[in-house]
Design a protein that fits this description.
Layout (H helix, E strand, L loop, with lengths): L2 H11 L4 E8 L2 E7 L8 E5 L4 E5 L3 E4 L5 H4 L4 H7 L3 H4 L2 E3 L1 H18 L18 H11 L9 H9 L5 H11 L3 H4 L3 E3 L1 H19 L4
Antiparallel strand pairs: 1-2, 2-3, 3-4, 4-5, 6-7
């Protein structure tokens, strides 16, 4: 999921929202963000002396920064604002299915090339013409009849990880296949629910600032 897609989901989720500053004390403010008549997606942004907290129907997040609401209203959501999350949220990762599949496609086509197997693809063309993983897998299976898959480590890797989202399992299996895998490949991304919640908070903060109630 691209973050522009997440932003689109956030805009849709906050249709009809109202934004209200319900507490305003020295060093402490609470903003209520919700659609009247429902608690779906409703949340509070709590700005305190030692951090910023998001709490509500969507989730709970913590930023280890003593800032005001303008911090969340910034534009650098994916890097700077995300980087200031408390470690348990900032470091939460998940498998990126697109990167996992691209890794497998490259390895499988390279195997075909190295073994001089007839193939409709060349490793040199993959930057411009990356076939879908299922097409490459279908090709491998069709060639299994003439023995091309005998002792094929890359096919064994495909069978182990192509439909897995378990980070430890994928890295363990891929490292058996390629000991340098962990250094050469990055197939994880920020946890997408955390990213969604960050975008929810930042979009609301922008609306709060625009409304002049910060």
């Amino acid at each position: 999921m691209k973050n522009q897609e997440i932003l689109g989901q956030v805009i849709k989720a906050q249709e009809g929202f109202t934004y209200e500053k319900v507490v305003d004390a020295e060093g402490y403010a609470v903003y209520l963000c919700k659609k009247p008549g429902t608690r779906i997606y409703a949340f509070e942004i709590i700005v305190g002396r030692y951090g910023i907290y998001l709490n509500g129907d969507i989730s709970c997040l913590v930023w280890d920064v003593p800032r005001d609401i303008h911090f969340l209203a910034g534009n650098d959501v994916d890097y700077y604002i995300h980087s200031k999350l408390a470690a348990p949220f900032r470091e939460k990762q998940e498998i990126d299915p697109g990167e996992r599949d691209e890794f497998l496609v490259k390895e499988m086509i390279s195997w075909l090339d190295e073994n001089e197997a007839e193939s409709p693809w060349s490793p040199m063309d993959l930057d411009e013409n990356m076939p879908p993983l299922n097409i490459v897998a279908d090709f491998f299976m069709s060639q299994g009849l003439d023995g091309i898959m005998k002792d094929c480590d890359v096919w064994n890797l495909y069978e182990e990880i192509h439909d897995s989202d378990d980070i430890n399992h994928i890295y363990n299996e891929a490292s058996k296949y390629d000991p340098d895998f962990c250094f050469d490949h990055y197939i994880t991304r920020h946890d997408q629910h955390v990213t969604f919640c960050v975008y929810m908070a930042c979009y609301a903060a922008q609306k709060i600032v625009e409304a002049g109630i910060a």
